[in-house]
Amino acid sequence: MNNGEKRRLNGEQEEDDDEDEGNDGGLEAWERTYADERSWESLQEDESGLLRPIDSKTLFHAQYRRRLRTATTARIQKGLIRYLFIVIDLSKAASEMDFRPSRMAVVAKHVEAFIREFFDQNPLSQVSLVTIKDGVSHCLTDLGGSPESHVKALMGKLECSGDSSLQNALDLVHGHLNQIPSYGVREVLILYSSLSTCDPGDIMETIQQCKKSKIRCSVIGLSAEIFICKHLCQETGGSYSVALDESHFKELILEHAPPPPAIAEFAISNLIKMGFPQRAAEGSVAICSCHKEAKVGGGYTCPRCKARVCELPTECCICGLTLISSPHLARSYHHLFPIVPFDEVSVSLLNDPHLKLPKACFGCQQSLLISGNKPGLRVCCPKCKQHFCLDCDIYIHESLHNCPGCESARHSKPEISNTEV
Amino acid sequence: MASVASKLYADDVSLVMVLLDTNPLFWSSSSLPFSNFLSHVLSFLNSILLLNQFNQVVVIASGYNSCDYIYDSSLATNQGSDSGKMPALCSNLLQKLEEFVIRDEQLRKEVSGDGLPSSMLSGSLSMALCYIQKVFRSGPLHPQPRILCLQGSPDGPEQYVAIMNAIFSAQRSMVPIDSCYIGSNNSAFLQQASYITGGVYLKPQQLEGLFQYLSTVFATDLQSRSFLQLPKSVGVDFRASCFCHKKTIDMGYVCSVCLSIFCKHHKKCSTCGSVFGQAQSDASTASNRKRKTSET
Fold first, then answer.
1. Where in the cell is it found (chain B) (predicted)?
2. Which partner for A143 in A126, A181, A258, B145 could form a disulfide, CB atoms 3.0-4.6 Å apart?
3. Torsion angle in degrees (nearest 10) through CA of B196, B197, B203, B207
């Protein structure tokens, strides 16, 4: 519990940080000279020509709705088992200070956040970190599923020098990705700081090799658009973008966290045999097969060979069965059963005095009336017809993935179970 | 002012979202009558409110056909009831509860057919989480929220995805889900919910002493919990149920595209339409499936 408390505090701090980035309110005075103070952008002119602060809440909601629309057009088949190499350019271009304090520090900070978000959304996937330095690329961490070990390795190795070589990095990644099982989605995400690449051979050949091995390469540039990066992404089906500033970079890198649509040529679908071990009672003593130590409590028992393992997900070291817990799988089920976007209730409907509209949000009981007891802005679930406030709308679609209205009505149930079977 | 406010909302102020199972099909067969259960719960709620003057209690009823808020201590007026016989909490709550049960009963008549005797836990969990988000939004100073499920009905397998979604959302916002299960067998859903979110799962042995269980285990705030020896979990059932027969299995096949679980080898995934062991999946069937799934 103690641990949980600590995490809670961290979580709150992170939230605060996010807010600060949004409105630049948390900057120190000396920092402000470096930040773009586009204070005029937070004002708008109303009909009488007076300047007013922008109604950020409705603006934010409009932005969110745009995001939602693009997200729901995605297909249901997604590549949920991903093998991702994150290539970080640590050539001397990474020490440039156009991002504060340096490109390298900004990249490291957001890669850490990205890795955590990635494992939250893709629990069965694996990540490996690769760095380019002095024209040579190094594997910082092997493919693995533990965010902590990646973050630790990255933070220990943050120094830059020399040139950058795209070809060396791609060759290294290509060698590793060729060995993974055919059902996995192979991806490379390159965070490229320099404006050139210093290669030992013909990079076009390497790109063709990657294309042949079905490796999806994406690049996020930190300086300017480079032809070779664009060509690489186009050839391999990845995305290429160049970050304008730190918040844009954060946005771009987090776009790679949700699973990509599965393309049949990229990964061959397959049925994988897996075991669902039970967690042993706290206080029971057993020797685990992974560390060969006697341990009290915790631990899971492989259903096939009854060996004890400490952590999930893993592969049983005795019989080789992939061991996972059902919550690991369930974490990604919201990708399969997405909830429909809510409809905005039109203004004409709101002003109709004959209609009896709900006074409070169905989810959080927040009053939906604005001053003068008039019904305010709200959204409505097209299935259960319940009304929700804008905050709940965002929470429901981005975190909860359940409609409280549909979940608290019995009649919608048989429909779902029929199609599932 | 700020320092006063932070004193008011010290770390031992709790917001307890109580999810009350009012499923008539369960209570009609239970050894503990609903009225006795309710009197235990009401005394428990009162004792939470007595522990700290800023503690807040919200009660959501999960019935057989619907869920609704039935009590919110932040909205309740402090005066006693007219007759003076019952405290305000009891009379308000009981009145709302009665209205809810009647409404729930009416809904049952409209919907024909007899389903499983589970209650709408997924709905009340989702509502509780929405309410907690509202509290989080209210500013940096808020009571520490937690959810307490007082559940008796068995798990409804059709709610699995929804309940798991709610559990992960609670985990992300660091809200523990405590559960007190009074049914006959253990509830795998609530065991997982409490395990994943760091809450306490308890299955009382002697239902006559329910109040004592509730007050010793679930009344303390989150800060004080670290000093207590709370009941430890006796093994959590992490087995999954397959999508094809809804059987609980400990070994099975998982589709690499959508992670659907099957108990035996299939040629094609019934959820996402992928054909296994072939490079090209049939485009037409895939799009059919897709449309069907998006309708649900």
1. Nucleus
2. A126
3. -160
Distance CA B291, CA B271 (A): 11
What are the structural domain ranges in chain B? 2-225, 240-291
Torsion B139-B143-B144-B148 (CA) sign: negative
Ranges of beta strands (E only) in A283-418 are 285-287, 294-296, 300-301, 308-309, 314-315, 322-323, 343-344, 369-370, 374-375, 379-380, 387-388
d(CA A338, CA A174): 34
CA distances from residue A224 to A406, B106, B200 in whole angstroms, order as listed: 48, 65, 53
List the single residue in B160, B272, B278 with the smallest CB-CB distance to A77.
Answer: B272
Q: Is residue A316 within 8 angstroms of chain B, CB to CB? A: no
Burial string for A346-372 (b: 16+ CB within 10 Å, else e) reads: eeeebeeeeeeeeeebbbbbbebeeee
A401 lies within 8 A of chain B by CB: yes
The pairing of strands A369-370 and B251-255 is unpaired
Backbone angles phi, psi at B40, to 5 degrees: -60, -45
Asked whether the CA dihedral A298, A303, A307, A313 is positive or negative, the reply is negative
Q: Half-sphere exposure of B186 toward its Cβ, with a 13 Å CA cutoff?
A: 13
Q: Kindly report the CA angle at B191 between B190 and B195, in degrees rounded to 5?
A: 115
- pTM recorded for the entire structure: 0.75
- Cβ of A375 under 8 Å from any chain B Cβ? no
| Closest by Cβ to A337, choosing from B115, B161, B244 | B161
Q: Give the pLDDT of chain B (296 residues) as one tens digit per residue.
A: 344 445 556 678 899 999 999 988 889 888 899 999 999 999 999 999 999 888 999 999 998 888 999 999 888 765 554 555 667 778 888 889 999 999 888 887 655 455 557 889 999 999 999 999 999 988 888 899 999 999 999 888 788 889 999 999 999 899 999 999 998 888 888 998 998 899 999 999 999 999 999 999 999 988 888 898 888 777 777 777 787 777 778 888 888 777 788 888 888 888 777 777 643 333 333 333 333 344 33
CA distances from A108 to A93, A134, A172, A249, B204 (A): 15, 19, 21, 12, 49
Is the Cβ of A47 closer than 8 Å to some Cβ of chain B?
no
Instruction: Tell me how many degrees the CA angle B270-B275-B278 measures, rounded to the nearest 5.
Output: 170
The enclosing H or E element of B294 equals helix B283-295
Q: How many CB atoms lie within 10 A of CB A49?
A: 6
Question: What's the farthest any 2 CA atoms get from each other in chain A?
Answer: 77
* Residues belonging to chain A: 421
Give Cα B164 distance to the centre of its chain.
11
Q: Rounded to an integer, what distance in angstroms lies between the CA atom of residue B256 and that of residue A172?
A: 26
Q: What does the alpha-carbon distance between residue A112 and residue A126 come to, in Å, rounded to a whole number?
A: 15
Say how far residue B40 (Cα) sits from the centre of its chain.
19
CATH H-level superfamily of B2-225: von Willebrand factor, type A domain (3.40.50.410)
Contacts for B214 with CB less than 8 Å, ≥ 6 apart: B40, B41, B44, B180
CB B144 within 8 A of CB B16: no
Angle between helices A413-420 and B283-295 (to 10 degrees): 160
- Convert B189-201 to b/e letters by CB count within 10 Å (16 or more is b): bbbbbbbbbbbbb
HSE at residue A16, side-chain half, CA atoms within 13 A, is 11
